[in-house]
Amino acid sequence: MTVTLLGVPYDASSSFQRGAAAGPAAIRAALRSDSSNTCNENVIDVAPLLGDAGDLALEGFTDSRAVIEAKVAALRTRGARPVLLGGDHSITWPAVRAVRPGLPRLTILHLDAHPDLYDSFNGDRLSHACPFARIMEERLAERLIQVGIRTMNGEQQDQARRFGAEVIAMRAGLEAMVASARSLEGPVYLSVDLDVLDPAFAPGISHPEPGGLSTRDLIAIIQAIPRGRLVAADVVELNPANDLRDLTARVAAKIVKEMVGAMGD
Length: 265
Known about the structure:
- With 265 residues, this protein is of the alpha/beta class.
- It contains 8 helices and 8 strands, in the order βαβαβαβαβαβαβαβα.
- α1 packs across α8, α3 (92-99) packs parallel to α4 (131-137) and α7 (215-224) packs parallel to α8 (247-262).
- The relative contact order is 0.20.
């Protein structure tokens, strides 16, 4: 299977600050920048392995999620492993809906400061604070493993219990997070919200939450995923308007390169 980038310039479901719709262009620019090369840390040149389906044109559509789902499903039908460039985190729900058919089981590895398990946030059940509630309600995954969480409140704790989410909070430490990635079996969807990182490493986000992972920690978790398990992935919540010298975009680009390495058969 080829790995194919798909830009999803969507942030209409953002709750605090919009701007993530500009994320795909910033990540692509960082991937193509002459400041680095196209190899990941396992000395795999990802350039010949990466296709690019461009950005979805979402303006004028009343149901952007249906457009996202249809495009991801089409990529899967062509034998691609899609890597979505967000966009806010609400894009993960339609992406998982498109990926799940034909898979006997699916595990979601979700890296984030926030559980995104609200039933509704500010009256919006489609908010970027709710995608994993929608995913688990539809039984689109057998396992939901949430790593790096450090903002869980009582409501989301109840939701995690309801859905059987396996929460590895930030305070559990890196060893537990790496072990969870290393033990993955079967097909896996990887969702990386860049605010899983401490704001010192990722200033270009809308919801900075102190006390997060370092870039090195995040790379270690991705590299621990057994090769060939990933069937799809996303990198979301980059807000270039808040970035400093494109540092967060460069982190996102590096994460994409490590994802490609993890997708190898």
